[in-house]
Amino acid sequence: MTEVGEKGTNLSGGQKQRISLARAVYSQSDIYLLDDPLSALDPVVGSRVFRDVIGNRGMLSNKTRIMVCNQGHYLHNMDKLVLVDGGRIKVYDKLEDLITDPDSPRNFREALEQRQSRDQSKAGTSNEDMAENDTVGRITQEELGRSTKTGWQLLRNLLRLTQWPALTGVLVFVAAACAFAFEQIWIKEWTDSSSRAASSSAVDQLPWVQVLVSLCIIDVALRVVGSVLLSLSAKRLSRSIHNEMLEHVLRSPVSFFDASPRGRILNRFSADMDFVDSRSFLSAKQAVQNTLITLAKVAVIGTQSPVVLGVTAVVIVLAAYGMNLAVKASHCARFFESVATSRLLQHVTETVDALSSVRTYGVAGRFRSHFCRLTDESMRGFSGFGTAYRFTRAVTSTAGFVVVVCTLLASTVFAGPDGLDPSSVGLALSSATSVPLALMTLCVMLFNVLQMIVSFERCVEYTELPPESDLQPTWSEEQKAAVEKILFSWPSEGKVEFQGYSASYRPGVLPNVITSLTFIVNPKEKIGVVGRTGAGKSSLVLALLRMLRASEGRILIDNVDIAGVPLRKLRRSITVIPQDPSLVRGTLRMNLDPTNSHSDREIWQCLEKAHLSKVVSSDPRGLLMETADGGSNLSVGQRQLVCLARALLRGTKVLLLDEATSQMDGDTDQLIQVALRDAFAQCTLFTIAHRIHTVLDYDRILVLEDGKVKEFDSVPHLLSDKSSMFYSMAIEAGINSVRRKPELISTTL
């Protein structure tokens, strides 16, 4: 039961395609619609998959297969050919008809003239079961369903985030509770004084009234001030914790996002932050206020009947013990509910992303059942929390009843022969009868605070996420000035040098994915990076971006060690065009120039070079055309062209392409290759190539095997050496010879 992670994190593009194809085969349908299922596979593996699965002797030989194909060497296996070009459709019964048709793309004929990929037994020895991105062990981590922090740690974080208003507000409410207690005692003393005096005038009563009014005003004023301070602290808490969460999440390494599903992150920023935002002020204010008022009432009762104070202390201890058990149970239930809600949101996001596949394979019922199971699991935690809450209410109600009964008995039955004066009995009973309601209200508020504390703790966890190493190196003022002077125009040439570089996703825990890489790339050189699946090609890109952690050696760009370059500067100086491009919701202009630092004219020039200007100009909104989430309203090839245009616009000295033209048709691929040579003639270019045809005119080829440099030389030299690994890969790809002129380089469709 191998875990692949969210959206196939642990899989390469080729592995994702093969899994999708295998899933389609298992569906046992009569008609199969295959949307370019072999584009991310190298020629050897692609030929094997086509032969064993899609071809006339494969597993789907007795099924109807409609296959969108960008590889011309598969066309001779097709029973019918449908050419779609410029919105027009042409149907051919024979391959010869397509070849002789002058309207057919030129690269069809060139690709068909090449020798077809040979099915060699050694192809099975390619390391195709390894993940291209070498993500060994990088799987989704389980979310903890329990508290990991002590109360003091949470209190320290709370005071750090709210600063002085929270503590000051609590102290103000303590003063308000004292004022409330003095009010009750003052009323009792006033009553006693009036009963002892034979007669009293209004003038005699004036001091008593003035003091009582003053106490009431002080009580109300202190409560208002305390509420304002707690409101400010709640606002500061929400802003501070959200900003810290966002900052730490954005600065987290890629491994964090591989191990954390989107639903989990979404739950922290939505449900948990909602509890902190909406309940922190009201729950904290009422909990503090009710706790202090209850204590004040008990203290007032104790001044009139000390015996009741002792009994109340025992009752409070017993009630606190019962509440402690309930709070622990509710704490676990709340954590369980939060984790279950994260799983539920994760399932919802994954279902929405794969909705077309879910409906296509007719498994909506299974996904619906799983959704119901996850909902039941989430409600199970909520039910446990509710049970603990009801138990606590029963405990507090019983405790309040005992206090009232004890006060009543102490004031009447056990009052002694002289008894208590009426004012003391009235004060004690009036205070005691309000205790049960105060305790129940306190119970409700404490549980609201508990919910907020659980959410607060989960949010605090995200404020302590470790950032990427050396995100901003620490330098002295002299070092900082010297480095800024060097990096102001860095990199100016684009020279890249690896010096015994080894790296791992977790040095000391996981093995190195690239080992002892030593080579030099001169400025403006075009380097093709090839190798079997799992050879470490994508890891090379991650190393240049410092997404891998170096275990030894270093990488120099223009003689500057990138380990000492701030990550923001480093990644702004390198442009990457990924194999699986993704855009954000907004306008095309925002995706091309998010900093709004280029003119429309410059953007249109880049779109023209990327052969995307016709698509954009056909939309009446032009550069303001909308892009959906992930760029779903554009084809994969068009999204890759957008990434290419963005790279052209940035104009960096180092460009990394991860098979950026794999989803394009052959004509567009050839045009883009020419555009790359022209537009990036002054740049150092690394191209990770699964299709060797795209790098035959590059200056040199870097062949990787098991994370090590196997070969590094020019194309003619490598092809002239029949013992070289590149030569064998070229033969497997059906390449007979190399012609150095770019316009004559053979490409596949």
UniProtKB/TrEMBL annotation:
Residue ranges of every copy of the ABC transmembrane type-1 domain listed in the record: 167-458
Cellular compartments per GO CC: vacuolar membrane
Family matches, as PROSITE patterns: ABC_TM1F (PS50929), ABC_TRANSPORTER_1 (PS00211), ABC_TRANSPORTER_2 (PS50893)
Keyword Membrane: yes
Nucleotide-binding in keyword set: yes
Stored InterPro entries: AAA+_ATPase, ABC1_TM_dom, ABC1_TM_sf, ABC_transporter-like_ATP-bd, ABC_transporter-like_CS, ABC_transporter_C-like, ABCC_6TM_D2, P-loop_NTPase
Comp. bias intervals (Basic and acidic residues): 104-121
Pfam family membership, one: ABC_tran
An annotated Gene Ontology molecular function: ABC-type transporter activity
Topological category with respect to the lipid bilayer: Multi-pass membrane protein
Transmembrane domains' residue ranges: 164-187, 394-415, 427-450
Protein name per UniProt: ABC transporter
Organism: Rhipicephalus zambeziensis
